């Protein structure tokens, strides 16, 4: 899904973002209210156009569009409300097309059949590059670029570029450096929020001693395991090494990878630290890994679960309140600095038309992002989304930390890799780390397997 020429990597230090995030989340994390309403008021225009705030959209009566994304459940339903507002403002009809992962393969079959969607939401910079190389992707027009330039930092614009031409609108972002915990479990155990890796291990032991398994891991989906590794590696090895490994400029047999896997094994390899053990974790998908942490009262299957801000959707599904039942702390510092790893999904045009360009322009606007922000479980890199749009104080602080970090972040490493290595179920990094979860003692073997798969995928 990525390629070795993901050359527009943003973030130069990660330290500034880490400091902002740590400071923001160290404050009180009490929820301050429920969901906002999700409707956007239509503002009057004139002639054949309708203007809403800063975004101007054409009349598209009778036009039909398809948008494909690998989104399901509440995430899909909330995005459909954003599309519904676009329909209301333009008169177009937009159909959401559920895609399978990896989406590039799904799109390939659609293109081969002569029926590509008008826009695809691509979750990796490398997927954008691949779509461009295959001549599927179409450049953004002047209106969409104008909206991007007004609303996005240079770094978020750049990761949607290929050969310095703008193809992607990063509609959705993720802060992937968070650990959520069951507040009642921590209270009963007398556990406190850790700031370092050693403190995290100590906290885990405290939770374990109280009678609750410390961690829930969604190992059935390999991407969650790559996120664990990336946070440890970024903090421990530092930003420069992170960038080198992301581009395969150093090998996965490098000692820095050994160090990161050794740290990871302190959680995955500790008897009874993972809910269900390795076998149970490998049968647990991401949504279940979250919900099982926040169901069962003060005796859930686990006390903590690692993942990004988007876990809030699943926390709500577990009927837990963010900020009271479910609290969060930044991924602890394994090295000198706490990590800040981000991800995201970009809207890319596959069928160029006035309607597709208008939809891309809409998705680059604060109007669109604000609708989904109010619904929760969503984070926008759009700096002109009012922070108060997010439905609770926890998410407001996470969103503020992302925006305040500017360009000082690192994008998900596996999302920068070729699809065969970093983004395919049952293959490459996903499979190697699933095998490592099963046998965390085999560090050298895991490194060899990662390097062999990476060399084949990167072609070097």
From TrEMBL:
Keywords of this entry: Signal, Transport
Superkingdom in the source lineage: Bacteria
Keyword Transport: yes
Sequence segments annotated as region (Disordered): 32-56
Signal peptide: 1-33
SUPFAM superfamilies the record matches: Periplasmic binding protein-like II
Coiled-coil ranges per UniProt: none
PANTHER family found in the cross-reference section: ARABINOSE-BINDING PROTEIN-RELATED (PTHR43649), OSMOPROTECTIVE COMPOUNDS-BINDING PROTEIN GGTB (PTHR43649:SF29)
Family membership: Belongs to the bacterial solute-binding protein 1 family.
Protein name: Extracellular solute-binding protein
